[in-house]
Hints:
The protein is mainly alpha-helical. The chain has three helices and no strands. It has helices at 2-9, 13-18, 20-48.
Amino acid sequence: MEKAMQAAHGVGYEVYSRKHDIRMEVEKKREEDYLQSQRLVADLDRKIHS
């Protein structure tokens, strides 16, 4: 988990768990990534079904 967190967000789990501002930045980025992936899926779905 530590390596995945470091690779994906550039921060280790220890820092993530200790620093609120870092945690909020990581979670904001996760949310943005999730929304972008949802838009991509919806776009592909429209293209497939049109």
